[in-house]
Amino acid sequence: METTHYATLDETLYRQTLANGLQVTMLPKAGYHKTYAVLTTNYGSIDNYFIPNGESEFTAVPAGIAHFLEHKMFAKKAGDIFEVFSHNGANANAFTSFTRTSYLFSATDNIKTNLMTLLDFVQEPYFTEASVNKEKGIIGQEIEMYEDDPNWRLFFGIIENLYPKHPLHDDIAGTIDSIAKITPEQLYAAYRTFYQPSNMNLFVVGNIEPITTLAWIEANQNAKTFPPATPIQRQFPEEASDGHDIIPYRVTELPVKRGKSIVGIKGLIPATQDRAGLKYRTELNLLFDLLFGDSSQNYLKLYDQGIVDDSFGYELDLARTYHFATLSGDTAKPQEFSDAMISLLEKADSNPDLNEQRLALVKKEALGRLLQSMNALEYIANTYSGNDFGDASLFDLVNIVDEITLSDIQAALRQFVRSEALSVFHIEPTAAAQS
């Protein structure tokens, strides 16, 4: 078993790749009562065009199938897996993102039993026509709920602008029409393709002993028979490298009291999936903290002018095949908000908030948040399991943050923030909502 000690965090990771390809990572945390485990497959909502395992031609599957599959994994012939976890004192959950699906539990005892339950239920699919059709109604209600959420509509509105061709613009849950087309055969095909042990990783953190825990996992996996691992072949639509396919502006009306505005920036140059990619993501996060953090002159000025309020926020999402950033907020003047954001972005290279003194402060704040987060088992497991940077991970972030210079920030700014990569989406109140 490979061990890596991170002196700056005083943490030791234990790693082992099993014979079937499953990657197991463990982080013992002395003094913790709780243990948290997450089993993740490198398969998310964007993976809708692929060659199914055992076949030779690409096939398209309905939007939302990865999320649908996640839901169906909990329903077994013998009953609901949530009840099994609950009986053994564990809280269980799952989630699907654009690029991955994760199944997890937390518990203070019966760790071996719960860990075996996690591995067994994810590795034993059970789909029937009746149960699939029943799930369509349940997920359909979930989709309708999100369609009524103006913040969700704002987020996907800007993604549709930035990625009109890429499946990223499809809602993770799909649409009522798309999930209506899902069949048990498609679910099994997706499962066989993406739920291969070699495409999955298991992260266990908390009150564990690594050698004993690994022995449990290995015994469980050795008792099962898996088909030979096969390469996964995905395909995505070709996008314009100069951003000419980006939709620059759209607006819609919803029954909201105040308008909403969001500015999006699409990364036109792909980020690498290695330590350099993690460093680039960190540089961009620091850049936005410098420009728009609540201690920046930009933010204070915009706040005093009434252009932003406490609803203002910015986010960066960087994963395989895409990366983008958003700046959004509630506002009575959506156009004024987006104009101000774009002006700051386009003139950022000479912005006075980009200076050595501010960078030192922002880096210190970032390290403080990171070190505080390292006390949260859920944060550690979910962040590590969603890693898109090869051997680099959140455990390298202390050193990465420390080595970043103002020149690095300025280089990342010039690479990422381009006029042709910008887009705007507004939500304005309907006439009825205003009256």
From TrEMBL:
Residues 181-364 form the Peptidase M16 C-terminal domain. Residues 63-175 form the Peptidase M16 N-terminal domain. Keywords: Hydrolase, Metalloprotease, Protease, Zinc. It comes from the Bacteria. Gene3D superfamilies: Metalloenzyme, LuxS/M16 peptidase-like (3.30.830.10). Belongs to the peptidase M16 family. This is EF-P 5-aminopentanol modification-associated protein YfmH.
